[in-house]
């Protein structure tokens, strides 16, 4: 039994049910793995283990693995580096599954996701070699958030390969997407000015955390307003999901700010950033590519 859809150029594409199912599972694995690496990367920073392996690509000058007595920080940092191999395995499976569908759009997305892994490794190496420069650390996180969005796009394109719509609702969806990324970026800048640097000797960006937090909060208010408007215009599951994530993020952000940024809450906020990227991408794509009438 085959499933018929439309490719990016309007051509009919016949994809076997088993092939589509394999691609869907690969896309879900890619999404989960990229969210996981964001959470574990946050754990490295919040435990002060960012320089547990003080060099790159080796862990120490002696080798690729920690030598001597394995410290708490080196174990955490080295363990996070090893998760790269999980990402590589998932990326290979995703590329193979995409290739089997015969669809060019899925193949391109899978290759872009795969290329993001060595790019992340290089940025991670620069992060270590610059002693956790906060601007490089933020770039490291933002790339992971972008890869989460691409994983959602892979799943959405697989399930809904139809031409894009236009109109005011799509414009609002794009505005919501842009506001979400402004919020995510400002969140990384706020983090770069705060206490959780990843290492006691790591530099901070030198900006005022109070002023940055206010700017971040203003952007959040804009995002919530756009999301509520989106919910009114298109009350679909994606819009509800985004608003739900924002409520959770707002609650965690509010509490962590007034309780001195405890590590557990900051870690939950990092997870919320990953979920925000996924949810806002889902919203945008569900509006641009709504379910076909057939």
UniProtKB/TrEMBL annotation:
<keyword id="KW-0350">Heme biosynthesis</keyword>
<feature type="transmembrane region" description="Helical">
    <location>
        <begin position="135"/>
        <end position="158"/>
    </location>
</feature>
<keyword id="KW-0812">Transmembrane</keyword>
<feature type="transmembrane region" description="Helical">
    <location>
        <begin position="170"/>
        <end position="192"/>
    </location>
</feature>
<protein>
    <submittedName>
        <fullName>Heme A synthase</fullName>
    </submittedName>
</protein>
<dbReference type="InterPro" id="IPR050450">
    <property type="entry name" value="COX15/CtaA_HemeA_synthase"/>
</dbReference>
<keyword id="KW-0479">Metal-binding</keyword>
<comment type="pathway">
    <text>Porphyrin-containing compound metabolism.</text>
</comment>
<feature type="transmembrane region" description="Helical">
    <location>
        <begin position="212"/>
        <end position="232"/>
    </location>
</feature>
<dbReference type="Pfam" id="PF02628">
    <property type="entry name" value="COX15-CtaA"/>
</dbReference>
<keyword id="KW-1015">Disulfide bond</keyword>
<keyword id="KW-0408">Iron</keyword>
<feature type="transmembrane region" description="Helical">
    <location>
        <begin position="82"/>
        <end position="99"/>
    </location>
</feature>
<keyword id="KW-1133">Transmembrane helix</keyword>
<feature type="transmembrane region" description="Helical">
    <location>
        <begin position="239"/>
        <end position="258"/>
    </location>
</feature>
<feature type="transmembrane region" description="Helical">
    <location>
        <begin position="264"/>
        <end position="285"/>
    </location>
</feature>
<keyword id="KW-0472">Membrane</keyword>
<dbReference type="GO" id="GO:0016491">
    <property type="term" value="F:oxidoreductase activity"/>
</dbReference>
<keyword id="KW-0560">Oxidoreductase</keyword>
<dbReference type="InterPro" id="IPR003780">
    <property type="entry name" value="COX15/CtaA_fam"/>
</dbReference>
<feature type="transmembrane region" description="Helical">
    <location>
        <begin position="106"/>
        <end position="129"/>
    </location>
</feature>
<keyword id="KW-1003">Cell membrane</keyword>
<dbReference type="GO" id="GO:0016020">
    <property type="term" value="C:membrane"/>
</dbReference>
<dbReference type="GO" id="GO:0006784">
    <property type="term" value="P:heme A biosynthetic process"/>
</dbReference>
<dbReference type="GO" id="GO:0046872">
    <property type="term" value="F:metal ion binding"/>
</dbReference>
């Amino acid at each position: 039994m085959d499933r018929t859809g439309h490719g990016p150029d309007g051509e009919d594409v016949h994809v076997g049910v088993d092939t589509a199912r394999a691609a869907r599972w690969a896309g879900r694995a890619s999404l989960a793995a990229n969210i996981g690496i964001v959470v574990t990367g946050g754990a490295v920073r919040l435990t002060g283990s960012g320089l547990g392996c003080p060099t790159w690509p080796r862990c120490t000058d002696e080798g690729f693995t920690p030598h001597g007595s394995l410290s708490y920080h080196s174990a955490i940092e080295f363990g996070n580096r090893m998760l790269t191999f999980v990402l590589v395995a998932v990326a290979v499976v995703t590329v193979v599954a995409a290739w089997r569908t015969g669809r060019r759009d899925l193949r391109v997305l899978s290759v872009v996701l795969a290329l993001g892994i060595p790019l992340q490794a290089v940025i991670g190496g620069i992060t270590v070699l610059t002693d956790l420069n906060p601007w490089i650390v933020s770039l490291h996180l933002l790339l992971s958030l972008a890869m989460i969005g691409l994983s959602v796009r892979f799943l959405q394109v697989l399930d809904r390969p139809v031409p894009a719509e236009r109109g005011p609702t799509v414009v609002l969806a794009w505005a919501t997407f842009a506001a979400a990324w402004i919020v995510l970026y400002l969140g990384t800048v706020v983090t770069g000015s705060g206490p959780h640097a990843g290492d006691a000797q790591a530099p901070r960006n030198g900006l005022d955390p109070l002023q940055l937090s206010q700017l971040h909060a203003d952007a959040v208010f804009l995002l919530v307003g756009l999301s509520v408007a989106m919910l009114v215009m298109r009350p679909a599951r994606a819009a509800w999901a985004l608003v739900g994530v924002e409520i959770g993020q707002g609650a965690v952000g509010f509490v962590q700010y007034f309780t001195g940024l405890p590590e557990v809450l900051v870690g939950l906020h990092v997870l919320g950033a990953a979920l925000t990227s996924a949810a806002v991408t889902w919203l945008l794509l569900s509006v641009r590519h709504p379910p076909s009438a057939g």
